[in-house]
Amino acid sequence: MRTVRAILGRELKAYFFSPAAYVVLTGFTALSGWLFYQGMERFIRLTTYVQGYKVGGQLIREWTLEDDILIPLFRNLSVLLLIMVPAITMRLFAEEKKLKTIELLLTSPVRLFHIVLGKYLAAVVLLTVMLAPVALFPAIIAYYAAPAADLGPVLTGYLGLFLAAYALAAMGLFASSLTENQIVAFILGVVLELAFFSIGLAAPSLDVIQVFEWRVPLGQVVNYLSLGNHFDSLTTGLFRLSDLIYFLCMIVFWLAASNHSMESARWG
Amino acid sequence: MIEVEHLTKYYGDILAIQDLNFRVAQGEVVGFLGPNGSGKTTTMRILTGYMPASGGRVRIGGKDIQEDPRAVQRMIGYLPEQPPLYNDMTVESYLSFVARLKGIPEKSIPEAQERVIAECGLEEMRRRLIGKLSKGYRQRTGLAQALIHRPPVLILDEPTIGLDPKQITEVRNLIKNLAGSHTVILSTHILHEVTLTCQRAIIIHRGEIKSDDTVENLTREGDLEHTFLRLIEGPTAPAAAAGEGGPA
């Protein structure tokens, strides 16, 4: 555990003693503020013209602050994460390989997995700091519209942002373990994360297939694998154990993959 | 202290080292000599547990590197060819980070740090960022890193490369002082260095050991340079090549 702490401490110093953390934090906060503001503007425009969401002249539902500002904001932020997370994780292993400092880590009497975990936790801390100010937006809404607001979906959506960020960070760490080039690690990270985020889009066109004895409903499998789907289900206010398990599995799987990838890189 | 038996390493299909056998006794300083690409770095990386061998075994202090890598790694201080330095850290914070990696108890860290800072002459640089240090001080910081946990075995890959003559003398003296209390393997292609710091030299070429003898014996029939060239190029080495094989 001491190794994990030592690695975590060093990585956090590397983030916060360089412009990296500040660029990421400022960028994300500024963009999310802008998106929130645009959402508000749009909401005000919509509410002045029509009362609610209409299909064929019939009112389906009224505009609400959660459904029409906060939930779309969270969805937008989850897309923003697909770029911010690899930007944070790209250096974790790639830089060590480039600078050959990985030789110090791998010749020290420490377990490889402790190194992986320390690095992952550093990304998690930075992401937590990055996402914390997002709470300000629901707070603003709750403050000015407290009686009307139903904050259930907002809370689960907010939790979903964190879970998605942590799962994406594990994927980004894996991407970083594959190369010594940070730009390659970044692009690999974006591609991998985008693939997992949007794999659910393929679901409607996939049939049940026959694998030996088993009938595999490919569409359902793909839906279950899709990070975007699990995130969306959280933003509807539904807190299901299966979503939580999905995110935990993703984290464990990609951390194990990173560990394996670093282990096999040793063989030269 | 160090026992290497039938050590072999392939990179894919390429044979890097082939059936190396040697032993290093406690307190001995052994020079690892060979032209570039002869397998010196590969051998050192296997000894330190950085990469696994394709075959053979390595035992250090009676422990097998495959079976108990962490026990072996605790006994080794390693200075790779390119010192593993983080440019965004100060010398002090880097050394305390390494101390934690090496498993030094928290309360002994300041003491260990002071000791290596003094040993490696880093007092004036302790609060400098490593990225701003000159090559000589970077090399010393690398050496300090290898010494911090008082390892009985030191493995140094080209420890004097890129240093100025004064610094080279200092590093050599430091290594000489370590002899007796430490077992040292150092690689170099500067032949002169071996005669100055080592008792024994292992000459390696194309992944094979060509000679393993005391420096005294190797220099008996003329200087080490001729012996070296005779061993790696065969007895008919042209005289002109001897001039090029100097300390470069």
Task: Provide the succession of SSEs of chain A.
Answer: HHEEHHHHHHHEEHHH
State the helical fraction of chain A.
over 70%
The counted number of beta strands of chain B is 10
Roughly how many Å apart are the termini of chain B?
A: 32 Å
State the total count of DSSP E strands of chain A: 4
Helix content of chain B: 25-40%
- Radius of gyration of chain B from CA coordinates: 18 Å
What structural class should be given to the helix and strand makeup of chain B? Answer: alpha/beta
CATH superfamily of the largest domain in chain B, please? P-loop containing nucleotide triphosphate hydrolases
CATH C-level class of the largest domain in chain B = Alpha Beta
Summarize the structure.
Chain A is mostly helical. Helices cover 75% and strands 6% of the residues of chain A.
Give the arrangement of secondary structure elements.
The complex is a heterodimer of chains A (268) and B (248).
Chain A: H1 2-16, H2 19-49, E1 52-55, E2 58-62, H3 65-89, H4 91-99, H5 102-106, H6 112-131, H7 136-145, H8 152-177, H9 182-198, E3 208-211, E4 214-217, H10 218-225, H11 227-235, H12 241-265
Antiparallel strand pairs in A: 1-2, 3-4
Chain B: E1 2-11, E2 14-24, E3 29-33, H1 40-47, E4 55-60, E5 63-64, H2 69-74, E6 76-79, H3 91-101, H4 109-119, H5 135-147, E7 153-157, H6 165-178, E8 183-188, H7 191-197, E9 200-205, E10 208-214, H8 215-218, H9 224-233, H10 239-244
Parallel strand pairs in B: 3-8, 3-9, 6-7, 7-8
Antiparallel strand pairs in B: 1-2, 1-4, 4-5, 9-10
Helix pairs in contact in B: 3-4
